[in-house]
Design a protein that fits this description.
It is a single chain. The protein is α/β, with parallel strands linked by helices. It is 46% helix and 15% strand. The protein folds into 2 domains: 3-199, 2-enoyl-CoA Hydratase, Chain A, domain 1 (Alpha-Beta Complex); 203-251. Helix 1 packs parallel to helix 3 (88-94). The chain is globular, with a radius of gyration of 19 Å.
């Protein structure tokens, strides 16, 4: 009964995966101001938790999220979340850990924006992405107008946003909006499998790799290539002889029965 009263649930596994569940299934996980604040603080806390390496975000019931709860819409749309610490999207962007979105059903407007802030997206066959900003006269302010076109291209983004019609899961996969589509019964297992594959790799490099991909994506290609080169030089300049030795040992296969070397964040 206690879990039923919590709008945001967090479960941590023993191997470094944290699963965040939006937990208002009776309301299709519509987002209230209190829920958004809790979600922002949850990402901040998990980012600072050294036992957490990968985060999975999903929704309870038949929706990922139906967007902002319209009974509290004015509190959200008028800027109550201009403080970074309580801004879910800002805290997701700042999170160093990979975020896997397990999209299990309706993913509408604000829910769509939160999904686009994830690093990897897995969708169930029941998923429908819908942008209703134009339908209800709500101006986008959480990134949907910019992130979607950078993901699927401006022509498809204009169709999605200006018509407010659903994008089915397999269309989303074909457009490159999601990494893969699976049966609802396989959704969490698939997300966990992806998380476990990430966990097998060098923890410090995973964090740095995510950051350089995301930071470089904001720049023109020439500047992004320079950014990668600069950070690569910094990375190798800070490596110690034992780090190089561990890398060489791993590449040579002599550590096949050992864990991948873990560097600090």
């Amino acid at each position: 009964m206690e879990a039923e009263n919590k709008p945001v649930l967090v479960d941590k596994t023993t191997n470094g995966i944290a699963i965040i569940t939006l937990n208002r299934p009776h309301a299709l996980n519509a987002l209230t101001p209190d829920m958004l604040v809790k979600l922002a603080f949850t990402f901040t806390r998990l980012d600072e938790d050294p036992t957490v390496k990968v985060i999975i975000l999903t929704g309870a019931g038949r929706a990922f999220s139906a967007g902002v709860d319209l009974t509290a819409a004015s509190d959200v749309f008028k800027g109550d979340f201009e403080i970074e610490a309580t801004d879910t999207l800002v805290q997701m962007q700042k999170c160093r850990k990979p975020i896997i979105g397990a999209i299990n059903g309706y993913c509408i407007t604000a829910g769509f924006e939160i999904a686009l802030a994830c690093d990897v997206l897995v969708a169930s066959t029941a998923t429908k992405f819908i942008d209703t900003h134009a339908k209800f006269g709500i101006f986008p302010s959480w990134g949907l107008s910019q992130r979607l076109q950078r993901t699927v291209g401006p022509y498809r983004a204009r169709e999605v946003s200006l018509t407010a019609t659903p994008v089915e899961a397999h269309t989303a996969e074909r457009w490159g909006l999601v990494n893969r589509v699976v049966a609802p019964s396989e959704l969490m297992r698939t997300a966990i499998t992806i998380a476990e594959a990430i966990l097998k790799n060098n923890e410090g490099l995973v964090v740095k790799y995510k950051t350089v991909i995301n930071d470089g994506f904001k720049l023109p290609l020439g500047e992004a290539l320079k950014l990668e080169q600069k950070r690569g030089h910094e990375y190798y300049a800070n490596m110690k002889p034992e780090d190089f030795a561990a890398m060489q040992e791993f590449i040579a296969g002599r550590s096949s029965n050992q864990s991948t070397p873990k560097s600090k964040l």
